[in-house]
Design goal:
The protein is an alpha+beta fold. It folds into three domains: 196 residues, Jelly Rolls (Sandwich), CATH 2.60.120; 53 residues, no CATH class; 108 residues, 50S ribosomal protein L16 arginine hydroxylase, Chain A, Domain 2 (Malonyl-Coenzyme A Acyl Carrier Protein, domain 2, 3-Layer(aba) Sandwich). It is built from eleven helices and 16 strands. The longest helix is centred in the middle third of the chain and has 15 residues. Bound molecules: succinic acid and cobalt (II) ion. The site of cobalt (II) ion has 3 residues, from loops.
């Protein structure tokens, strides 16, 4: 997929450093969904979509979805782009492309955004803060890149379009071509035909996000009953001052609430990195027993999973489920959609294939009967689901 480059060479020479264009990365590649499918997604309430119209020098407009079908049906012939985020969470054929990028760990992947542009359509020259792989799926697109540029943005648009842009490189991509861009390279893509582009977006949390998430967790675990106390305090000699002994106790109150060991921090990171995006509601299968109370699922739920597997049904990871495995010396930490579980290391045997997209069938329950209660729990959390039609 990376032309003559191995994964190692790509990571060493390009990843986070410099752009790479690969012609014919996926020979014969065809769009995994149609423009109509994409428009359909952009009309759904729980799908994030945008419509960008305009052209360089002529002003830009941004509208947010969900859109009315008629709005999308009445778009002009030229100069608009419809962009839909997280298409990998809805379309299995799009999600399947992620397998090509597993030389980078799953947790680094954010989503696959799909754009469809009318001829002349563009979102303007801009930079992204994340690494992105742009796969051309339909029509031709002209890309212009600049690595040394003025960061000033156009005023009055929430599109973050660069005010001035002079290209240093230019090329026209066709279906099957791939363009990798590291963060902060200015790029300007212009659809020459009706063009579809898939953007595989990677994520790299910044300190503000992590500290924000950590603060939430610290507030949750802070103890109300730990409160400043001062029995037998001496008479205040200088009531307008704060004494060292008072400061010492208050400092300790703060510090003891902030103190997190590496294990606690790693578990916080596992939960945070697997947390679903805020707009995704995950519906699990209700359990007979409460999964929060019964670690590893209750006996009835376990039996039901066993029965359905024995009948030939199969369990698969839900599209877009976020799973992360952290093997420790004596146990396995599993993070699934923001939840945390501790299992024996032997569970890697079925969990690793599950993260790779393999279906769980009755042979799994024969090999690892211990897996059954965990399957019931993951089912209840919506991380896995019964396969409807074999993929
Ligand atoms: C697009 O697909 O139109 C824009 C993708 C990008 O420039 O990041
Ligand atoms: Co971009």
């Amino acid at each position: 997929m990376l032309g003559s480059l191995t994964h190692e060479e790509f990571l060493r020479r390009h990843w986070q450093q410099r752009p790479l264009l690969v012609r014919g990365a996926l020979p014969g590649f065809q769009a995994p969904l149609s423009a109509d499918d994409l428009a359909g997604l952009a009309c759904e309430a729980d799908v994030e979509s945008r419509l960008v119209s305009g052209r360089l020098g002529g002003g830009w407009q941004l509208e947010h979805g969900p859109f009315e079908e008629e709005t999308l049906a009445r778009l002009p012939e030229r100069e608009w782009t419809l962009l839909v985020q997280d298409v990998d969470k809805w379309v299995p054929e799009v999600a399947a492309l992620l397998a090509l990028f597993r030389f980078i760990p799953d947790w680094r992947i954010d989503d696959i955004m799909v754009s469809f542009a009318a001829p002349g359509g563009s979102v303007g020259p801009h930079t992204d803060q994340y690494d992105v792989v742009l796969l051309q799926a339909q029509g031709r697109r002209r890309w212009q890149l600049s690595e040394h540029f003025d960061r000033a943005l156009l005023p009055d648009v929430d599109l973050k379009i660069l005010e001035r842009f002079s290209p240093e490189q230019e090329f026209v991509v066709e279906p099957g071509d791939l363009l990798y861009l590291p963060p902060n390279v200015a790029h300007y893509g212009l659809a020459l035909d009706a063009a579809m582009t898939l953007s595989i977006g990677f994520r790299a949390p910044n300190q503000r996000e992590l500290i924000g998430a950590c603060a939430e967790q610290l507030i949750g675990s802070a103890r109300d009953e730990l409160r400043f106390r001062d029995p037998a305090r001496p008479v205040a000699a200088h009531p307008s001052r704060i004494e060292e002994a008072d400061l010492r106790q208050l400092r300790e109150l703060v510090k003891s609430g902030l103190a997190l060991g590496d294990d606690e921090l790693d578990r916080f990171l596992g939960r945070t990195l697997t947390r679903p995006k805020l707009h995704f509601e995950i519906a699990g299968e209700p359990l007979e027993s409460d999964p929060a109370r019964v670690a590893g699922g209750g006996a009835d739920d376990t039996r039901q999973v066993e029965r359905r597997l024995a009948r030939g049904e199969r369990l698969v990871r839900r599209l877009g489920a976020r799973l992360l495995l952290v093997p420790r010396t004596t146990e396995l930490w599993l993070f699934a959609d923001g939840h945390e579980f501790q299992l024996g290391l032997g569970h890697l045997e079925w969990l690793e294939p599950l993260t790779e997209g393999a279906a769980i069938d009755a042979t799994c329950s024969q090999h690892c009967p211990d897996a059954l209660p965990w399957l019931a729990t993951l089912l209840a959390h919506g991380t896995i689901e019964w396969q409807t039609d074999p993929r």
